[in-house]
Recover the amino acids of this structure.
């Protein structure tokens, strides 16, 4: 049981890092969409976005999945819980958004972004909504 709690603690630590990056990166895109391609500001945003994604968001996502799946392997009955099913479905949406954030980063890197600051402001709400749903599911556990 103690080992399980250490795994859960490492899961929550990696989840916090993943969410911090997923909430920050779209915000950078909001301002980057307003910067002139090729300008010093745009080039600075490219460095910030690349480092945030590669050094924080990607490893944190892998760790969150790793420790989360490890707990499911240790306690497979969790998968039959409706709150865990809603949680994992929400996490799939979050992972899909992660994929799109990577694609949009490459568009910015190649100065071919055509999306507006308003678009990225709307995108920025998605990880917030997912975080609220997931934390309520895993702490309150409705539908038990
Ligand atoms: C990436 C895929 C994920 C998997 C496979 C996963 C799986 C799990 C599992 C199996 C548990 C243990 C539940 C228990 O022991 O009762 C857990 C706990 C937890 N998860 Fe995740 N999770 C994932 C992502 C997330 C995300 C994205 C968040 C938050 C936004 C999150 C927040 C939490 C929290 C706060 C707990 C601790 C709940 C408690 O104190 O019992 N997880 N997760």
């Amino acid at each position: 049981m103690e080992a399980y709690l250490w795994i859960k603690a490492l899961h929550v630590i990696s989840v916090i890092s993943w969410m911090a990056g997923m909430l920050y990166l779209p915000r950078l895109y909001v301002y980057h969409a307003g910067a002139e391609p090729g300008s010093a500001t745009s080039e600075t945003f490219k460095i910030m976005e690349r480092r945030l994604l590669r050094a924080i968001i990607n490893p944190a996502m892998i760790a969150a999945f790793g420790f989360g799946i490890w707990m499911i392997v240790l306690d497979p009955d969790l998968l039959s819980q409706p709150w865990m099913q809603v949680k994992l479905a929400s996490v799939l949406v979050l992972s899909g958004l992660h994929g799109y954030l990577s694609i949009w980063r490459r568009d910015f890197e190649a100065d071919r972004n055509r999306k507006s600051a308003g678009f990225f402001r709307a995108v920025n709400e998605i990880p917030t909504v997912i975080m609220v749903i997931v934390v309520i599911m895993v702490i309150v556990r409705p539908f038990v």
Remarks:
- Residues 8, 11-12, 15, 19, 64-65, 68-69, 71-72, 78, 91, 94, 131, 134-135, 138-139 surround protoporphyrin IX containing FE (CB under 6 Å).
- The helical segments are 2-32, 40-74, 82-109, 117-140.
- The two ends are 22 Å apart (CA to CA).
